[in-house]
UniProtKB/TrEMBL annotation:
Keywords: Membrane, Transmembrane, Transmembrane helix. It comes from Kribbella orskensis. This is CAAX prenyl protease-like protein. The keyword Transferase does not apply. Coiled coil: none annotated. It comes from the Bacteria. The chain crosses the membrane at residues 25-44, 64-85, 106-133, 153-172, 192-210, 222-246, 253-277, 289-306.
Length: 345
């Protein structure tokens, strides 16, 4: 099965893949991805300017290769998702959005709201002497930052939870049902099966390829750090992304574009944009800004797309939370970081 709505697809796997390749959104996405690869290699030179303790030994070429391997994994996970759910009917997410004119206004408002929230997160965090608030706590993915304090971590999670999850949910739940916001499962058994399969595969891949430092921690630090990491990242990263993008925006993207493929791509781009203030990004020169944007896309676009795939395939925004966000990667990868931040013994 391809990542297109049924009216777009043609009978047969080959025809479906041909139809997928012919879509303008796919061509633009491929062109953008290739451009990011080329830009990263052309501008970076021999080294990257980013503070990446966990990837300090990797060359720019190595990091580009890593990003493309993640993309390949996401494509394989997408194929696995469609195979596991092959007997399920595709949920009609577009019907959960309001009429087109209202959906367009709401989408524009949400994107402007997100831009304003990122600006507010930058200003408030800088006033406090912290890293700007984006969708990830400083030190996530690329290594621990010595100067992240417990107060910063708690403020980051609280800000994101309120701004991207609580406020939008309070507003939209006044006008739309839980089903219209992708918050209710249409098939709990099938959702549980898909969550179990994807979570198992993704966890095994991360353990095999990243050698997470969580396994080097003493048992007491794991027992204290893992629940703390799960809770803090659930509040600061997982629920904000789930509510803002996958519960509210995804049905509107689908209605406005009429294409599941375009919706998946837009989901990936929106997810990427919410990480613009990652602590490693540098915007002090045109070259560094270009590299920052390129590596934001190389880092987050593919995972953001797959989260959208899980949502459009199941109609349940909670599926990606448990299958591909809260436990793997965050609890698995970031527990050592929060053990360090909170000085857990």
């Amino acid at each position: 099965m391809t990542l297109v709505n049924e009216p777009e697809a043609q009978p047969g796997r080959r025809r479906g893949l041909t139809a997928l390749r012919r879509q303008r959104s796919v061509r633009l996405a491929v062109l953008g991805w290739v451009a990011c690869n080329g830009l990263a290699l052309a501008v970076a030179g021999d080294t990257l300017p980013f503070d990446w303790p966990s990837a300090a030994a990797r060359t720019p070429l190595g990091r580009v290769v890593d990003a493309n391997l993640v993309l390949i994994e996401v494509l394989l996970l997408t194929a696995l998702t469609y195979w596991v759910s092959r007997k399920r009917a595709m949920p009609d997410l577009a019907s959960r959005a309001p009429r087109r004119s209202v959906a367009a206004r709401e989408t524009l408002f949400l994107l402007l709201y997100a831009a304003g929230a990122l600006g507010l997160g930058f200003a408030l965090a800088r006033l406090a002497g912290w890293h700007p608030f984006g969708l990830h706590l400083a030190g996530s993915i690329y290594g621990t930052h010595e100067h992240v304090s417990p107060a910063e971590a708690i403020a980051w999670a609280s800000f994101n939870l309120v701004i991207y999850a609580v406020v939008p949910l309070l507003y939209f739940r006044r006008h739309y049902s839980a089903e219209a916001l992708n918050l209710r499962s249409g098939n709990r058994r099938a959702d549980a099966l898909l969550i179990g399969v994807i979570l198992t595969v993704e966890s095994l891949v991360q353990i095999a390829t990243l050698d997470p430092e969580i396994f080097d921690l003493p048992a007491r630090q794991i027992l204290l750090g893992a629940p703390l990491t799960f809770t803090l990242y659930l509040a600061g990263a997982v629920l904000p992304a789930m509510v803002f993008i996958y519960a509210i925006l995804v049905p509107r993207f689908l209605l406005l574009t009429g294409s599941t493929t375009a919706t998946v791509i837009l989901g990936g781009l929106t997810y990427t944009a919410l990480h613009v203030w990652d602590a490693w990004t540098i915007f002090d020169s045109p070259g560094n800004a270009a590299l920052s944007v390129a590596f934001l896309i190389l880092t987050y676009f593919a995972p953001g797309m797959f989260k959208t795939v899980l949502t459009v395939r199941t109609g349940n925004a909670w599926v990606h939370v448990w299958a591909y966000h809260a436990f793997a990667p965050h609890t698995l990868a970031d527990t050592p970081h929060l053990v360090h931040v909170f000085h857990l013994k």
